């Protein structure tokens, strides 16, 4: 069991305005998912900037084929566990499928994830009108929002699978328009998933909020990966955009540290991780 003691690393807490400052200063933001307290502590000690309790937990923890079965209660449980393992790392939690169906539900979810579980920010997928309304309502109530565009996993059935988005000109323009719309609605951060690197670069230049890529190329303001993918423990084939950082290293701590170093130096993502 972990007990905070004199060896606990002391870092300046990462804040929401601090993320914007990192973009302005050209410092890469390192984000990684976590689902429990022990791994959260690994992120904390490796100096990860942002921990994401993703609804990917439905796939890598619960064993489902998609993120859709994850409930708000699941998210609150895992977010509270992760919060207990963090001190300086900023904590973001996903709004699960359909918890954004209208403003009252989105506010209820935001209140539970931030007030009860300890997140500093909530993440919401897409840019449909009801999502923009939810972003505005959350931000007005001082709940910072991370938007999520491109390959949004909660739309898996609409996309016909986990498919790269924004390849055609028209689709790319749509993603760009959505990015401007979520920024205008008040989002403070944007996760951009599964799009060509050229589109990742355009979006990152078009918005003033930090853009965190996952399969969106090297020109974003930071990167995020699913913890189980980058430790090589997810069953099946690893996504092209991910990398097993445990290969050639002898501990989880070393793998997470290598990921952070490679994002900060620009070594990750390499061309073979991009579309
Ligand atoms: O749920 C999740 O882990 C995510 C990341 C893939 C960004 O949304």
From TrEMBL:
A Pfam family reported for this protein in Swiss-Prot or TrEMBL: Pantoate_transf
InterPro entries: Pantoate_hydroxy_MeTrfase (IPR003700), Pyrv/PenolPyrv_kinase-like_dom (IPR015813), Pyrv_kinase-like_dom_sf (IPR040442)
Subcellular localization(s) per the UniProt record: Cytoplasm
Keyword flag Nucleotide-binding: no
Catalytic residues, chain numbering: 193 (proton acceptor)
Binding site for 3-methyl-2-oxobutanoate: 55-56, 94, 123
BP-aspect Gene Ontology terms: methylation; pantothenate biosynthetic process
Residues that coordinate or bind Mg(2+): 55, 94, 125
Any one Gene Ontology cellular component term annotated for this protein: cytoplasm
Protein origin, superkingdom: Bacteria
Protein's recorded name: 3-methyl-2-oxobutanoate hydroxymethyltransferase
Recorded family membership: Belongs to the PanB family.
CC cofactor note: Binds 1 Mg(2+) ion per subunit.
GO MF term list: 3-methyl-2-oxobutanoate hydroxymethyltransferase activity; magnesium ion binding; methyltransferase activity
Keywords assigned by UniProt, alphabetized: Cytoplasm, Magnesium, Metal-binding, Methyltransferase, Pantothenate biosynthesis, Transferase
Keyword check for Flavoprotein: no
Reaction catalyzed: (6R)-5,10-methylene-5,6,7,8-tetrahydrofolate + 3-methyl-2-oxobutanoate + H2O = 2-dehydropantoate + (6S)-5,6,7,8-tetrahydrofolate
Organism field: Dyella tabacisoli
Main subcellular location of this protein, as a coarse class: cytoplasm
Role: Catalyzes the reversible reaction in which hydroxymethyl group from 5,10-methylenetetrahydrofolate is transferred onto alpha-ketoisovalerate to form ketopantoate.
Names of the cofactor(s): Mg(2+)
Subunit structure: Homodecamer; pentamer of dimers.
Metabolic or biological pathway: Cofactor biosynthesis; (R)-pantothenate biosynthesis; (R)-pantoate from 3-methyl-2-oxobutanoate: step 1/2
EC number: 2.1.2.11
């Amino acid at each position: 069991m972990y007990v905070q003691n004199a060896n606990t690393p002391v870092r300046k807490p990462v804040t929401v305005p601090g993320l914007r400052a990192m973009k302005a200063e050209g410092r890469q933001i390192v984000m990684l998912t976590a689902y429990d307290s022990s791994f959260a502590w690994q992120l904390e000690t490796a100096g990860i900037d942002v921990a994401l309790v993703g609804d990917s937990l439905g796939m890598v923890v619960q064993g489902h084929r998609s993120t859709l079965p994850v409930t708000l209660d699941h998210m609150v449980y895992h977010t509270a566990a992760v919060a207990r393992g963090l001190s300086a790392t900023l904590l973001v939690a996903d709004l699960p499928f359909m918890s954004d169906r209208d403003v009252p539900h989105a506010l209820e979810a935001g209140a539970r994830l931030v007030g009860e579980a300890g997140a500093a920010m909530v993440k919401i997928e897409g840019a449909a009108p009801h999502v923009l309304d939810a972003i505005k309502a959350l931000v007005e109530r001082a709940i910072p929002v991370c938007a999520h565009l491109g390959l949004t996993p909660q739309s898996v059935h609409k996309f016909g699978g986990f498919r790269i988005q924004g390849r055609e000109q028209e689709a790319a323009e749509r993603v760009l328009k959505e990015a401007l719309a979520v920024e205008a609605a008040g989002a403070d951060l944007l996760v951009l998933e599964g799009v060509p690197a050229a589109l990742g670069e355009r979006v990152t230049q078009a918005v003033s909020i930090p853009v965190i890529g996952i399969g969106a190329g090297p020109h974003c303001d930071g990167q995020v990966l699913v913890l189980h993918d980058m430790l090589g423990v997810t069953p099946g084939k690893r996504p092209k955009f991910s990398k097993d950082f445990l290969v050639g290293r002898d501990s989880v701590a070393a793998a997470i540290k290598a990921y952070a170093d490679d994002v900060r130096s620009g070594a990750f993502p390499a061309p073979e991780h991009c579309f």
